[in-house]
Amino acid sequence: MKRLYVENFGPVKNVEIELRDINLFIGEQSIGKSTLAKLITILTDHISLCKLINFAKIGWDEQLKEYNLDIYKDDKYKIIYDMEEANVKFHIEIYPNKLSSSMLKDEKRVTNKKSIIKELIIQKPIYHSDKLINILRTRLSNSEKGEKEKSDDSIIEFMTNSLYIPAERNLYSVVMNLLPALTLAKSTVSLNLLRFMVELTNAKSIYAQYDIPLLGISYKNDGKDDFFILYKNKREYPLSIASSGIQSALPLLLVLQYAINYREFSSFVIEEPECNLYPEKQVELLKFIISLVKSDNRTLTITTHSPYLLSAMNNYLYAGTLVNKYGERIRDFVSKVLPESYQLMPGDCSVYSLGERINGDGRYCKSLIDEETGMIDYNTLDGVSAMMTDEFDQLQDAFIQMIKES
Question: Which of 79, 107, 143, 224 could staple 94 via S-S, CB 3.0–4.6 A?
């Protein structure tokens, strides 16, 4: 169980959410989805939590800077995160000038910083975990001895247990060759974007050729330049001339595949996976992402503008609901429509809508999951269609009125 409460932090005014294995946030632009996604990345990343426990306010300020959230550091915010896994309960509260955390293990309070960090680290598989634990212990020991330590140590600043895949990924074909310069200029480039670029560089070194059936292409890297090969004519083209949809989806898929196969990230946060893709391809991409993440019990958070992803998610929930309710009697029938890798069981998902209240009285964040059915509320799915139907009816009425008056 994970719960997050955010109050008065940038565009996020009052949000209380439950985070599950798969989380989806839908809403219009500039409503707070990306801000919320970045906070989720920080607080569900056990390495980041260790930094916060160790360095308190200094560590928090650095986390905000890494995700370009430091513009809100002077807001009068309140952030609370609760995590309960197995026999461990963790609680952290963050205010502009205060950060406090606590832990219960087997209902007994854990107060020592090093003990809390150790418990958090072993909760999730972490890349180079032994090395990281030793670094954190050394740094904590030094700070307790009064030695001045910088909390942006270059050894650990690129280590993270949650992978954030930004919407800006579609710029990679332009800036990829500038990565060394960007690394040197990291004071002006967000660290989360640099991390993604590093992961992409690693992925390209592993996947010199990578087939992407849902886009109808193969990716190819000759050690210097990037290319794509169209399935339909077998011709090779520079990636720089690819469509915007390919340039957005390709880096996402490369990094995600690499992270699943070669890294020990326990959670993924993806901004707008549907960027520049045709609706049918949006749904195919969502299926692929879910099948990858489900394969190894990782967690997934998605922000989106697309109602198609919402409808697709509901189908996956319905498939899981049918199998959960009727078992073997229906399993084969359902799997012929939606294989098990796409089926989502009741309780697997959180789906939230963010927006402006109709009366102008602030913003809302509401769950779209119907508690009785475990599926997405039908009225939400049909909202856009209803609006378009209403417009069409009004146009018909206008035409009829014109006929009457002529």
Answer: 79
